[in-house]
Amino acid sequence: xxxxxxxxxxxxxxxxxxxxxxxxxxxxxxxxxxxxxxxxxxxxxxxxxxxxxxxxxxxxxxxxxxxxxxxxxxxxxxxxxxxxxxxxxxxxxxxxxxxxxxxxxxxxxxxxxxxxxxxxxxxxxxxxxxxxxxxxxxxxxxxxxxxxxxxxxxxxxxxxxxxxxxxxxxxxxxxxxxxxxxxxxxxxxxxxxxxxxxxxxxxxxxxxx
Length: 209
Prior knowledge:
Elements: E1 6-7, E2 15-16, H1 24-29, E3 48-50, E4 52-55, E5 58-61, H2 63-71, E6 78-82, E7 85-92, E8 95-98, E9 104-106, H3 120-124, E10 150-151, E11 159-160, H4 161-173, H5 184-208
Parallel strand pairs: 2-4
Antiparallel strand pairs: 1-5, 3-9, 4-5, 6-7, 7-8, 10-11
Helix pairs in contact: 2-4
């Protein structure tokens, strides 16, 4: 899929009914279009982010995936899947993005580092260090609390949303994916049930004794 998306049926993938698009001027000038949707877990923490997602059964790449497609000068991406769900997204024959069956990436976050940021003012006034920009993948975003693009992650409660996408890019490019063993969710549910039952078992034993 390039800018226009592809038709694909997979009930596991996140599916959205509508999308808020860019300004027409940006849409027409952009060589690619990536989704920036970031859905937190039930506890409000962002751990997994879609590499691809569905918009009314049409699949679109995430911002990080389409940035890499454009960087590698590829016309499209390929989706690998099996009867149990997605396996990954292929950018080039040698470059593959690993996903879970729902098409998501477990983000391997680095500690917050303010030195990775460059002021937009410095860029617009040509004061930004060239070595920090030239030949690099650059993400433009906001960090002000009032703009409501602050996310909670396993390492930071107030991380700018743009840095979530930067961490996704780093996870992919350094091949430092986080994975969970098969059956992990079942084991977690079992452990939670056992842990919740321990106080009752302890009280029963104390009563018998």
